[in-house]
Amino acid sequence: MRLDVRYRTVFSYSEPTSESQNELRACPAGDEGQRLLDYRVTVDPPARVFSYLDSWGTRVDAFGVRRPHDRMSVTAEASVETRPRPLPTAAPRTEALRRGDFVDGHVEYLQRDRHTDGGEGVEAAARRQSELAGPDVVGTVLAVHRFVGTHLNYVPGSTDVGIPVEDVLAGGRGVCQDFAHLAVAMCRSIGIPARYVSGYLFTDSDETGAAPRTDTVVVQTHAWMEAAVPGWGWLALDPTNGQVVGEHHVKIGHGRSYDDVQPLRGVYLGPAASSVAPEVEIRRVDGAELWRSSSSGPAPGAPHLNGTMPAGMPIPARRVPAPAASGSTIRQQQQQQQQQQQQQQQQCC
Amino acid sequence: MGTQWFEEYDLDGFFDEVVAADGSLRPHYRKVAEALEVLAPGDLSRAERRRTAAFRTQGITFTVYGDDDEDDTGSGTTAGIERTFPMDLVPRVIPAEEWAHLEQGLVQRVTALNRVLDDLYVGGMEIVHDGVVPRWLVLSSDGFTREAYGVPVPQGARCLVAGIDVIRDHDGTYRVLEDNLRCPSGISYVIENRSALTRVLPQLFSGDQVRPVDQYGPKLLHALQRVGPPAAGDSPTVVVLTPGMYNSAYFEHVFLATQMGVELVEGRDLVVEDHVVYMRTTQGLRRVDVIYRRIDDDFLDPVVFRPDSALGVPGLMAAARAGNVTVANAVGNGVADDKAVYAYVPDMIRYYLGEEPILPNVPTYLLWDPDQRADVLSRLDRLVVKPVAEAGGYGLVIGPHATDEELAEARAAIEADPRNYIAQEVVSLSRHPCLVDDHLEGRHVDLRPFVLSGDRVEVIPGGLTRVALRKGSLVVNSSQGGGSKDTWVLAEATVPADELEGAAEAGPEPGAGGAPPSPPTPAEAAGTDHGVDLLGAADAEPRAAGRVPQEVH
Description:
The structure holds 2 protein chains of 2 kinds. By secondary structure, chain A is of the alpha+beta class. Chain A contains 7 helices and 16 strands. In chain A, the strands form 4 sheets. Chain A has a 5-stranded antiparallel sheet with strand order 3-6-1-16-10, with no helix packed on it. Chain B is built from 16 helices and 22 strands. Chain B has 2 domains: 1-38 and 85-210 and 337-380 and 428-553, no CATH class; 230-324, 3-Layer(aba) Sandwich (Rossmann fold). The chains are: A alpha+beta, B alpha+beta.
């Protein structure tokens, strides 16, 4: 399916700001499920865009505006051709998850971070699904996927970015990011490497993921998850709407959690309050040529390496930085330079 | 022994830098001992008062921050107390051949550390693919910084300034205790100590040819200029980026900018336009090519790191990635001074250089390995346990001095997160005579040599010798009774005389120095909770407590 995606965010400031520096992650990835045909970024006021691939393989467009402005817009336009993603052709048992080389090759997707650091509730829920599914990895992943999709209610605007997955589970509702983070956290807690995916979904209902009746939809960015199946590759599932990720999904990139693939992050100078209005328009284009590729089958997993992690060793947690005291002053930052804290605004489905 | 100063001197069974086991003076110290011979205790006391007054006058101080709960003002402020750093007047002397060994070992080590960092961030992680260092170990390090992935550094000089903490064990073998590859501090004290000693006790220098340390500024500038972006040409514009005047190492930031003759800037003085960095000047914007930053990675650029950082420069990382500016030390160096990764440095030297390590590590046990963990847990009361990423001795447990309760806590912590800890044998640090009232007593010392990487790797002669001034203490942090010593490297006969410090030119030199913080390793601990500061803590970023007087990364 040929889809044209137009991502656009407009910042409006209550008074002019003299500087803004940003990084955009909006470019569709190229992989076995999709091919990027065209991509273009436009910034207004005009700015020189510097583009690179980050450590996850996601294209980043960095740009800054350094002149007084009270409004800035960034527009990313992509044409992408998608096709159904293959389903697992292997049925590994859960013992395969504990192999040292498998763990070593996926350790970044087993660590917890601030978005996926589940507590006892998440662990118990994951264990329960694991027991129900038995010793089959794919079955267990599907069970987690189904659980998240049925346990959570999709309620737009119901949560903020950064809400702990334990609270999402207890609250029973969320947006697509919460569905993805909870599914990722549950998989990791039972030793299944899982990653958060940022992308676009061609639908007129995020909740059902149903195919739209029109050729053009206006949506927001979407999120789903991928789980590693030993001996096969990454299985992509969309727990928000209970679907297997298919040709209506356009993947931007993946990472450990939202922080690694945040669509737009940046800072601006000045006291002005701003409003941010991200918007995604997706258009189905008829008559596109079919994508015929000589390569097929699953993506190669992470390379198998030596020096493996001992079986049964607890996966080290990524340190969750202590939140900086609110109102931390420059003086305190000068003195104490090792705290960390991050905060972002939510801008997703 | 032949001198009044050493008649009553007691070795207490430790390796001593000056007095051999049989009580004789080591040959390299004879000339200093002869010079001391003609001094009365009163002469040294007077010199000490002059030095203290000089440091105070020049503002060579460090700041001690109080814990909130010790803040008897009740104001809850984090304002610090300014103190001068104690300097013991009896110099440490390293003979030429001993220094040659150290120097070779340090160059070798830092060369390998530069190589591994380049490999991890821009080189495809060959060392991981070849199975020398486990992939999971690297990726699970807090210091492994994905934001630095793909960011080039000219010459591969990622550790532009390295501070390698070295100790000597019971038989005098030099060993590396830890590597400081982020923002190591203390070099200003090296220079100031030398300047002070030549002024207050010029007669000590009468017999020896001592290699100078005051070329550090020009050498640092040279190294920084060699890592400029290619477009910057032969004389790139260099600046020093400081967090600001409230940072405990601010004195050193000012000092280094002055020594190099470059601008000292804060984040707000720099702007990024079209991925090029400029500094604001009275004549408008001026392009900046190389930034020697003394700000932690997390604060460097709010676009990619902490968004609330007010100290950094928005857009700096993209500018560095684009090759328009060089940030030194490189972002992400923390992965190579992770204490669990430290254990692999000897293997890195073999892997990249095909050489055997010249300087050994302190024997270190990796607790994620089930066999090593079991062994360590069976004799926890005889080992030292350190968290891998902490600086300043935080979280450190010295087995022989820990209570049963502390040992139980350490055991539980290790079992819960074995990746986060290492264990080391307790090292019996060497001692050096120090002036105590009117006589000399042995005190434990360590050494932080400074190593520069530009178009080549070079070691500044000597380094910062830190002293645990309290009797029996292993704590060298200045806030805990630690001090420093002027550290001499003796010249070989072939060194031209005009490169040497001499009694004839006992006059003032640039600068004057205070003293820094930090820690060596223990043999026995301070007997109090201060002991922790020592052991491994060479690295202490100013945090809340009163134990870390100085930014030592």
